[in-house]
Each structure stands twice: as structure tokens, then as C-alpha cells.
Amino acid sequence: MGNCLCAAIDMPLSYSLMDEEEMTYVEGGETIDYNFSLATKVGASVYAASYRANKGWNNISTYDLAAEIYFHAYLYYYGVNAVANLLSGVGGKIGEVASSIANSLGDGINVENKRDTKTVAGIERWVIYDAFYLI
Q1: C-beta separation of 38 from 73 below 8 A
Q2: CA atoms within 13 Å, Cβ hemisphere of 57
């Protein structure tokens, strides 16, 4: 290895590593702060309609945005067990995924001008949000 032009990478004193999913949120999404009213269907729906209008978003419906907001806010305020119990009524794989989404709560609700097509247990997240919103 005689002529290696390798250099060491100096990392800052404070840094964190991100996986691909976290990077997607950083690159393309926006964050909505948690508010208890978003854990209600009416609150999430009114907020989603206003948010879409203010942002000029047209690649996601008010319904799908409200479902995503509602799911995350409900999970944040009531916990994984409450969400899992309600989703168990839907049955199948959808009833098993709430805890695996819980790690995406972070410091707010990450949304984009499109449905959340990342998958959990082989199911696109938007399907889970919509199923939960129907219950």
C-alpha cells in the first residue's frame, strides 16, 4: 500500500449519525410541533387543511395529511399501547406496527407534500395512518 493518499476524517466534538430514513426527513420534510388538539380527528383535520393551504401543497390530500398528523400526535400523547390496542381492531400486520413507528416521534411530526411511503412490516406507513384515522 505504498502510494495511498488516504486522509483521516476529523469529526466535530458533537455529532450524531443518521440512518437513511432520518436523512429523508432532514432533506425533504417539515416539522409540525406537537399540540394536544392534534390528537383529535377534528383538530388534525382543521390543522391539515390550513397547513396545506398555507404551504400550497397539492401532492397530499387533507385527509392523508390529517391522518398522519393525528396518528403521530395520538401516539405522542397516549403512547404506543393505546395506539396498538386501537390498531389491533384492524387486524393483520397493521395491528403489529405501532411500536416500530414510535421511534419516529422525535421532536415533532415530520410531514412532506406526499404520502409517507416508507414501509413497516411490508406496509406503507400512510396505509397505517389512514387505518388508524378510520377507527
Answers
A1: yes
A2: 21
- Looking up cell 397516549 gives 78
Helix (H) or strand (E) holding 119: strand 119-120
pTM: 0.70
Is the Cβ–Cβ distance between 11 and 40 less than 8 Å? no
Give per-residue pLDDT as tens, 52-66: 999 999 999 999 999
How many residues would you count in the chain? Answer: 135
pLDDT in tens, 118-131: 887 788 989 889 98
- CB of 24 closer than 8 Å to CB of 106: no
Q: Which of 33, 65, 35 is nearest to 51 (CA)?
A: 65
Q: What gap in Å lies between CA 5 and CA 95, rounded to an integer?
A: 53
Nearest to 18 by CA among 111, 106, 108, 109: 106
Exposure string of 70-87, with b = 16+ CB inside 10 Å and e = fewer, is bbbbbbbeeeeeebbebb
